[in-house]
Amino acid sequence: MSLATIDIVIIICYIIITLLLGFYVSKKASKDIKSYFLGGNEIPWYYLGLSNASGMFDISGTMWAVTAMFVYGLKSAWLPWLWPVWNQVFIMVFLAAWLRRSNVMTGAQWITYRFGKDLGARLSHIIVTVFAIISTLGFIAYFFEGIGKFATIFFPWDLSFTLGSILISSEQSYALLIIAITTIYTLKGGMYSVVGTEVIQFVIMTISCLVIGYIAFTTVSGDQITAAVPENWKNLFFGMELDIDWTGYIDSVNTKIEEDGFSLFGFLFMMMIFKGIFASLAGPVPSYDMQRILSTKNEVDASKMSALTIVVLSIPRYLMITGFAILGLVYLGPELQLSGAGIDFETILPLAIQRFIPIGLKGLLLAGLLAAFMGTFAAFINAAPAYLVNDIYKKYIKPNASSKTYVRFSYLSSILIVIVGLLFGFFASSINTLTVWLTSALYGGYAAANVLKWIWWRFNSYGYFGGMLAGLIAASVVPVFFPETPAIYLFPMILLLSFAGCMLGVLLGKPDDMEVLKHFYKTTKPWGFWKPVYDQIKIEDPEFTANTDFWKDTFNCIVGVIWQMTFVLIPMYLLIRQYDYLSVVIGIMLVTTFILKKTWYDKMITKAKI
Fold it and tell me: Where do the TM regions start and end (predicted)?
């Protein structure tokens, strides 16, 4: 497809502005590594919230979500629970505050704060750094797969070439080019560049989402949607079986559902709940989300940032997702039915853009989606090098080097991580495969140790190392033995093996130093099983009080999950013309907002003033 001149100009202008901003803030960012990786803890929480939302609005995830909406209808609203998307609620309610109180730079540095500096702590420090790097490499591969599929549909030039005996496809060439541009501006500006460009990107994406929602609302009627989809496609709820039969509509979708392994939707839902509770309690993984929390000025700002992320991300994003899905169903559905088998459903998003978006708006939308990709990619390549620089190079190799040396090494680390991640991307089979492995297998290995670190005083550094090591090995090996089983169903086995590693480390290792535990518990103030530590602190500080907010936090998390879900459902019900359900969901949103203001926000502000 050939883009109009105006569309190409809009895209080029966006890329130039992004690069110029990265170079403009480079002097401020390169002052020291705290400025480079955390923005000197000076960036306002609302900018960080917009940046965090922009970072989560990635193009590969959006392509996946459009495909999910196309195939599973309203039930696709549950599928982001695979991550789980409601870990943001747990972070908002209590984990952001717990994490921000540490005043560290990275998740690996947090290990020293929690476990001290003995051999077990050093091993734990190293393994969480390894996890951060592995997860970043996986996500780079995930982004590489998505942006390549997206770009080749729009850009008319054939960029394929041969490197020795290896054929580099046009899809891969476009991905390499866009990733190179993103890497340059991120390297130059650090966190300042990432946040600044992501705020611009968020504005562009929000405008794009509103445009798509408007186009879909004005060009597709409720009757057209009903005629294009099978029974139960519009039904949010489900039994044990998915109960959506695409025969006679787009027969090949039935094969897609079978390949995804989501036919037993009720069982899938139970697995998502089970996995989601553990994954959410574990806290944010060591990537861009954690980096945003650590970049805030204080714990209240960290919590408000997480709440803002939930609000500003869901509604505009699902206007776009639902809009493209229904446009594809109504206008591409008959064509896809005639195509027979072998359809790549992950290209529905770019195909819909190609067919339904007018000149001018197409350039804006493509700039917005490029922004979505670049924002998320930039967030990862800003977060991951912090672990190599701060937690390996500075800690073990050159502890007394100059700030300029650390910043330069961060440049080298970023380039190295991107190159290795791209090599992974060349061997990725699909976005869905990478999504499910990252969310279910890899994060399954992370959950056990990172839940116990918050809630149990006796959980020592060797337990953390043992649990993380067992989890990483299980996440890599278990899927190999069960190649036909979707990774989400392997989560309990991976979690169990990780828990076994935790318990083995606890039994073989002695308790951590009481002084370290007292410092952690007194500053973080988590709830959980901390009585021996609490008793020791009470002797020294009779005024100290324990955190008794477990049931209040549990209540707020349940309400928060419902509240978050309303922001997903509002644009869905609006665009498919189910106004009765829309009014109910808006009512639930208002009620849950009021409850959270009273039981979470007001109490948080009151505590901060004490």
Answer: 6-25, 45-72, 78-99, 119-144, 164-187, 199-217, 262-285, 306-332, 364-388, 409-428, 434-455, 462-482, 488-508, 555-575, 581-600
What's the distance, Cα to Cα, between the start and end of the chain in Å? 61
pTM score: 0.84
Write the single-letter amino acid at 113.
Y
Q: Which residue has the higher pLDDT, 28 or 595?
A: 595
Q: Give yes or no for a contact between 70 and 214, defined as CB atoms under 8 angstroms apart.
A: no
pLDDT for position 209: 87
Question: Is the pLDDT at 38 greater than 90, yes or no?
Answer: no
Chain-centre distance for alpha carbon 420: 20
Residue whose C-alpha is closest to residue 84's, from 590, 564, 593, 592: 564
Of the candidates 558, 487, 547, 559, which has an alpha carbon nearest to the alpha carbon of residue 522? 547
* Whole-angstrom distance, CA of residue 571 vs CA of residue 221: 15
Phi, psi of 167 (to 5 degrees): -90, 120
Note the CATH number of domain 27-433.
Answer: 1.20.1730.10
Q: What are the structural domain ranges in the chain?
A: 27-433
Cis before 84 (ω within 30): yes
Write down the pLDDT at residue 382.
65
> Who has greater pLDDT, 33 or 108?
108
Q: Would you say residue 403 has pLDDT above 60?
A: yes
